[in-house]
Structure formats: C-alpha cells, structure tokens
Amino acid sequence: LSILPAIAVADGGSVLVGKFVGEKQWQQVDRVRQSVLELTVSFMFIMGIIYVLWGELLMSLFLKDQNQSIQQEAIALSGLVALAIAFWQVGDAFQVTYRHCLRATGDHKWVMWVGIIISWIVNIPLVAFVIFYMQGNVFHAWLAIGCEIYPQNPANAMTTIYTENAPEVRKILKTKYNVNIAGGQDHIKKLIFRIN
Fold it and tell me: Which of 14, 53, 86, 139 could pair with 80 as two cysteines, CB 3.0-4.6 Å apart?
C-alpha cells in the first residue's frame, strides 16, 4: 500500500536525476532529489499514521478464515505487524529515494553491496535468531530489524542496542525467558538495552 507508490515517485525522479547528471546540472540534480524526498517522506508518513490508526482493519481485508478463533488471532497479529511497519515508513522513504537517485547517477555497486550486506548479513540472521531461538513471531522480527548498535564504535566488553522499543524488548526477555537485560540511563533510559 505504501512502498510501491513511493518507489514509483523515486523511479520517476531518478529519470530526471539521470537527465540532469548527463547535462551536468548539479543544482537540478539536488533539487530533484529534495523534491522526491519531500514527496516520499510526506506520503509514507501519512501511510504510517493510517497503519497505526487502521492497521487491523486494513489487514482484515486480506485475511479470511472459516475458524473465527484463527481469524481473530491472525487479525490481531497482523495489526501488530502494521504497527511495526508504520514505524519504518519514513526510513523507507529515505532508503527508496536515495537508492533510486544514486542509481541514476551511475552508482550501482555501492547501492547493490549495501543492500546485500544489510539483507543477508544483518537482517536474515537477526530474524532467524528472534524467530527460532527466542521463539518470537513476525511482530518480534519486525522490532528486531529496527534495532541498531549504539554507539557507532561499541566497547568490547558490552554491546548496547539502540531501539525505541527497548522497554518492550527487556519486558519480553524478562517475562518470557526470565532474562534480565540492563536498560539505559538519563535521557536514553528508554532507548537502549545493554548486554555484557
């Protein structure tokens, strides 16, 4: 519902970027990039709000099961996934915009390698860990992909994970697995958790 229209806008913008790169009109290249970014961020932000407010309703349009219990469980889980997707919208807008603009300038290798590294070396092992080892579901996998190492150059003795869902992650680890994980302090108290 949201990613394909954003890709269409970015793809259209990439045609203009390629044209202006060929003409060496660098200010126009930047102007197009900025316009595409404004359109995709605005659109996907609105879609994020729609996913938050009406995620379960939207997902129920695609889920039909004769067993009402299974139907309700599927709708509830897909509503949680819609919430997770909502938080990714603006980040996806940046990713789609810059990926298409960079490709239009002829920078295909960097875009390709970053995509491969993030997908295969980071996301797949992380999701496999959450699903198979921690017995999570698709909602937990979406939350895990939203995590990042904090700070950029972490200490060897401790790993700190930055995520806006840190309290929920700590709660799941405590209630489901009886594992205590340290949180943050001061202004980042609810934004990180620490593993020694």
Answer: 139
